[in-house]
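Task: fold both queries, return tokens.
Query 1:
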Amino acid sequence: MGIFQPDFGEVNISGLPPLLAINSWPGAIAYVPQDIVISNGTIRRNVGLGFLIDAATDEIVFNALKIAQLTDFVTELDKGIDSEVGIRGTRMSGGQRQRLGIARAMFTNPKLLVLDEATSSLDGITEFAISEAINALKGSVTVIMIAHRLSTARSADLVVYIDMGRLIASGSFEDVRAQVPDFDQQAKLIGT
């Protein structure tokens, strides 16, 4: 995302350094960190964080919430998307806050989505549902998913296995299993 500079080599997005790419194509690149920052305010304001409130229309916010598997929770609230989340999201569970962060990333219909352990606080059922929703974006969104859970990486087109900052293997999930005994052992433990 351009926050840290690599020790050697370079990282580009469509031929541009990350910060220049972000400035050139506002909203085209979205990032979901493991620890989501929630601001005091409504669900609508948190999903549209950084944009004018008029841009956070019901339709756009609900589309983002749908991908993040948060619509059931929100529709049960008295004020729906205009319900207050509390200071740092205290009126929400950790998994709901994480899904709110995913909805925030989907607000701009990005072309590149970077998920950094973005489903680590979710139960298996919700993680599966979000993974299915993200998989449905194939062809319209490039997703880079950083994950320790192998179930998260199972459906990836390309798996890159890095250990201690070194590239160990890359390929399909099965290719990496064949190349990395530890990866294969972990996959067997989760039943894949």
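Query 1 returned. Query 2:
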Amino acid sequence: MKKKILVAVMATALTGVTCFAQTSTGVIEDFKPSSLNQPGQEFPQVNSQGYARFKIFAPSADSVKVSLGLGGRGGTRLAKANDGFWIGTTEGPMDEGFHYYNVNIDGGKFNDPGAMNFYGSVRWESGIEIPAHDQDFYALKNVPHGNVAQVLFPSAITNTLRRAFVYTPPGYNSNSKNRYPVLYLQHGWGEDETAWSNQGHANLIMDNLIAEGKIKPFIIVMTYGMTNEVKWGKMREFKIDTFQTVLTEELIPYIDAHFNTIANQSNRAMAGLSMGGMETHTITLNKPEVFAYYALLSGGIYTPEEIKDKSKVKLIFISCGSKERPDGVKNAVTTLQGAGINAVSYVSENTAHEFLTWRRSLYQLAPLLFK
């Protein structure tokens, strides 16, 4: 059934206001291709309100549904047109920022050929970006840029060569005498070491902060956080002790040997989102001689009783989205502060367990590190 179109406002030469047709459901028809589309692809699209519209070619299909990740308002059923395309719009606006999604065609799971792919949910998923009102802090700008390099390091405990990505700040290669602190930054469950660069824009956040003179430049190391594969809902089967060895006894010595680091506890931080926060929590408590700065991004809390030696902890940073459990984060930090521990909380407004929460968290965390 065709929807009736209402003209909300007319643009006039007197006012110079640009306006758009609005449907009876209140959706403004100013849709544009997502910034994460494949080259030349018109769909998926997003509008100024945060709605997303999808168009999939599946002429022989009986049903097509788009399954969106957290913050993406669940599933969107598409309607078939006469030309073999299926088209549909989300029932409501999505949270700002990045979202994973996939396309279900007659019960099979596929990626959208119009969108770029990102590793999440233990597979390469399609990605869509809902423009955020504060996206300037992770935008690609004409400023000096650092480098993100892939390194392969030997791991005796897993009997493999493992991979990490290392961000080095602008000017790193121009002066070999400069030494830098290091943040070890972990991804969430189902993601890998590409997540913080691809989905999180960690390198662009750093470049922009450095260009604005808001932070002391430092290195970021991002590595794969799994040492044994674990299915959804069975995180208790994850062997944290093995990953702890990989990180503290294999990767950190490798980084210190191959990069210009300040190789001591007071110039080393660990942070992680979601599952990476769980790893951060456990490893920093087990290895207080290794890290001085701790950060949990939607990844739990610390209690004063867990901190055995307050003198070794320079900062505890705890964050989440406002649609998660902000009171728990704020209360935990208040308790830590009451125990004489330097602790900071941050709550990302109008976001849930999703990458805009974590982009904003890194933006807030970075200026607090290595003071």
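Both queries returned. Flag for query 2: The radius of gyration is 23 Å.
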